[in-house]
Fold this sequence. Notes:
Layout: H1 4-13, H2 18-40, H3 46-51, E1 53-54, E2 57-58, H4 62-77, H5 79-101, H6 106-128, H7 140-156
Antiparallel strand pairs: 1-2
Helix pairs in contact: 1-7, 2-4, 2-5, 2-6, 4-5
Amino acid sequence: MATLHEWLDTYGKYHQNQTNQFIHEICVPLIVFSVLGLLWIVPIPHQIRQSIQIDGVGLVNMAVLIFILALIYYIKLSRIIALGMAVMTIAMLIVLGILSVLGFSILFVSIGIFIVSWVGQFVGHKIEGKKPAFLTDVQFLLMGPAWILARLYKKIGILL
């Protein structure tokens, strides 16, 4: 398994253009949010949902389950990246919960954000002149958010 730095360095080679980097800083978190939203609405069997409750409140949906699996992947790569991903994802899940309580259609919001964000990503790669990294290895789909977070960490002086 490659190290976090190897993954980030390779991912960075696909993202040298400043405009593409800027587009990714906006679109990658929006894609994560939209994927969480799409997973949010996937039904979980009643038996599983009932078995994972806190004080009778079911706090688990497919978005939470996939988040936990992704978090395990990030922990294996880097605890500091995993911590940032956990904070970011929990914040996104809270926003999804609020939108749901307010009556927004998580499906339509998520699909809209997903489409617009991926169009942005492909525009960025057109400007860059390189295909997206995930076309060479699907693990780069998990590396995009980590790369954005690593760039933020660098700006605020957090070492990986």
